[in-house]
Amino acid sequence: MKFYMMHLMPYADLDLDYDQKFNSAWITLPNSYYDPKKGAKLYNRYLDELEYADQLGFDGVCVNEHHQNAYGLMPQPGVMAGALARRTKKVKIAILGRALPLLNNPVTVAEEFAMVDNITEGRLIAGFVRGIGAEYHAWSSNPANSHDRFHEAHDLIVRAWTETGPFAFEGKHYEFQYVNLWPRPYQEPHPPVWIPSQGSSETIDWASHPDRRYTYLQTFTPVTMLAKYMAMYRERALEQGYEATEDQLGWSVPVYVAETDEIARREAKDHIENFLNKFLRMPKEMLLPPGYLSLRSMMGVMKAKSAIGGKQTIDDVIDKGMFICGSPETVRSRLEQYQTEIGFGHLLTLLQFGTLPAELTRKNMEIYASEVMPYLREKTSAEPAMAD
After folding, report:
1. CA distance linking residue 284 with residue 198, whole number of Å
2. What span, in angstroms and rounded, lies between the C-alpha atoms of 124 and 120?
3. Residue partners of 65: CB distance under 8 A and separation at least 6
4. What digits encode the pLDDT tens for the residues 61-89?
5. Strand, helix or coil at 75?
6. Measured between alpha carbons, how far is 336 from 378 in angstroms, rounded to an integer?
7. What are the residue ranges of helices labelled H in 163-283?
8. CATH of span 2-382
């Protein structure tokens, strides 16, 4: 199993009383709540934390894309990846993702990712997403077109990475007379592609196709639903004539580890509940706008995301396996259990969440890196997971 530190870069200085006037930290929250002086300090603190993950021995660090919200301050994750490219030495840098359907020119992503891949000499992981429903509100984009635009943008980017140019591209949504990528990516035939998802069955079908076999990531989901989606990926692979490996499956989950279960719960409680009830707060119609999902996928995603509706407590998410919290022994045991039962090969931990301050984030990172990661590395390398 490989270990990554994922960062959302939230606006941790958010006035948490905002919800007395506004119903969401996304899209409709006035940007007067953002103080650039505080935001500048947060950006540099967060980059320091990701650089520290490199020193602590993580396999990778992850940034992602969200627009017009306090939940994640990375509307352009390539900026963060570029900042990390020269300041880190060993870790993979995963950009999870770019929201391809929002783009007017997907070639810019092919160029941007190729540049980071060259600067890092092959340490880039390319993440592609459709983007959650709120992004379509932010960009005034039609979610009903998102599947077609995603697939066409993906095909254009991969061709730009792998085909000798110049060549012409004529699609339904994108048309170019000349595609001739300078620079070409460092990795051959191109950087590995990961597909984060909320659980769309169409996304699982597409990512698992033998032509792609992309790593599928499930994000912030009850562990029962995680197991279902991972099993679905494996089933689709078998139906298409091959056996999926653990390297094709990943899980993103917030984790907090401290000296004892009691200390961990006490230190994490306010911050994980702020994350759940303040930063994640958005109406369902913003998360899942009409046309965004097929009926089949909508039913599955609604079931999974119903676990984060309403007011949530730390106990709620610990019980559902959506937050791993406790002593090193507790965290090791829980993660080992889930990995053995489900068989994911990439573990993306949110070690900073919501309002968790710098000193507790560093403490969390250090204990996790020294007392959890080495144990799980040894166990998962010695005992292959049983995925059935």
Report:
1. 14
2. 7
3. 72, 74, 75, 76, 77, 95, 96, 97, 98, 99, 129, 131, 135
4. 999 999 999 999 999 999 999 999 999 99
5. coil
6. 11
7. 201-207, 223-239, 261-274
8. 3.20.20.30
